[in-house]
Amino acid sequence: MAARHRDRPPRPWGTDYPVRLSQITGRWARRFAAFDAALESHHPAGTPHHYLAIMAVHPGAQGQGIGTALLRHHHTTLDEDGTPAYLEATSPASRAWYLRHGYADTGPRIQLPGGPSMTPMWRAGAGYAHG
Q: Per residue, what are the HEC states of 64-89?
């Protein structure tokens, strides 16, 4: 699970993220950087939150509760200090899954040029309301 807090320095990406992204994506680095920037422009402004960038379970291991266990553990950590969370669901199935785990739609779907359509979602941290 990759994540970063909007009110703290990015982690685990760090300050060398652009260099690492370029090394990993090679000739597609500009596309990945543009994708990151497009998503960043849709994040809730002015509200400190945790950004859940990637949540995935290997297809052969799906349906066994691994993703649910990971997400619950992660929510426990976020709820310790009342940190809300933001993410973009990448499919109707993932949106439904996140709805079951306390997330709510938080705006219109994001349609990136030549890319996927995603649903922005928000989960209020314990004792925290979005607004």
A: CCHHHHHHHHHHHHHHHCCCCEEEEE
Over residues 27-84, the pLDDT tens digits come to 999 888 888 888 888 888 888 888 898 888 999 999 999 999 999 999 998 998 889 9
User: What superfamily in CATH does domain 2-123 come from?
Assistant: Gcn5-related N-acetyltransferase (GNAT) (3.40.630.30)
Domain ranges of the chain: 2-123
Q: Left if phi > 0, otherwise alpha if psi is -120 to 50, otherwise beta: which for 26?
A: left
Contact 74, 120 (CB under 8 A): no
Which whole-number Å values give the CA distances from 28 to 12, 33, 53, in the listed order?
A: 22, 9, 19
- Per the CB < 8 A criterion, the answer to whether 66 and 57 are in contact is yes
